[in-house]
Amino acid sequence: MRRRENLQAVQFSEQAWNTLQSELAATGFNSEVVTSFPQPLRERLLVLPGVVANVLRTIRHVSTLYDELSLTPEQRDTFQLGSLFSDLGKSGPAKATQEQQNEIALVFRPQAGGDPNTILLKDFLKHRGLEHRDLLAHLEELGLQPDAMTMRVFYNHHILWTQEILEQAGSVLPAEAVRAALVHHQLDGYPPGVEEVELDVVAKLIIIADKYDAFRCRSEWSHADTITELRRKVKQDLGGRYGEDKEFAKILDVFEGGMPVEGYCNGLH
Ligand SMILES: [Fe+2]
């Protein structure tokens, strides 16, 4: 009984998809491209309402800066689609059933549960009250080892899972948006299996926008601290190739001057 309550499983419904389509259109997404999303992709988006809400919030803010960022209409579309696709893997690997997608999405839902670098997946689930025998069995079926992998290793899987899901969705998705989505964690280093690629301006914007949103709303950092940390990360973590990069510098300058200092997480000003 408790398990059902915890999972709050999202079932696909046309009505829910139509609502999401309207929200995407209101946020400036190209309706023709959204209408062409294959069914498995629609299902994934509906399994991840929190992720989609964060992406839409980020896009609404960044879209007020498009002119200052000198983005072409094509680059704006690519940024939006790439952002939307980035965290699809938080619903599990391509082969996950709808039930398993809901379970994985639940484990990814942000909540304090210890240091992800040291806490094991199994202990995290226990802490969250999710240590059910069939959930553990499902995770093992998907190739995870709850009693041997840390949460950090578990979290890193979402990048490869995003890749799998987008590969399976095939050529209906704009290739540039797929490429941009797959690099969104490059500031955090490259998990095994993720290829290091040259970053274009849209990929850089996705990386910065994703982290900016996480620091402001998930970690509750101030605007000023977030900008300082992002500058430090670009300099140190990407120092070899992008430490002095002019496009990263411009994006950070525009964010510094243009993102709201107060109320970013609650809505637009
Ligand atoms: Fe991510």
Overview of this protein structure:
The model is unreliable at 1-6 (pLDDT under 50). With 269 residues, the protein is mainly α. It is built from 15 helices and no strands. The radius of gyration is 18 Å and the shape is globular. The longest helix is centred in the middle third of the chain and has 19 residues, at 151-169. The termini are far apart. It has one domain (2-93, 159-258): Hypothetical protein af1432 (Orthogonal Bundle), CATH 1.10.3210. It is 62% helix and 0% strand. Fe (ii) ion (FE2) binds at residues 86-87, 158, 184-185.
Topology:
Blueprint: H1 2-7, H2 14-26, H3 31-35, H4 39-47, H5 49-63, H6 73-86, H7 98-108, H8 121-127, H9 133-141, H10 151-169, H11 175-182, H12 201-218, H13 223-237, H14 239-242, H15 246-258
Helix pairs in contact: 5-6, 6-11, 6-12, 12-13, 12-15, 13-15
Fe (ii) ion (FE2) is lined by residues 86-87, 158, 184-185.
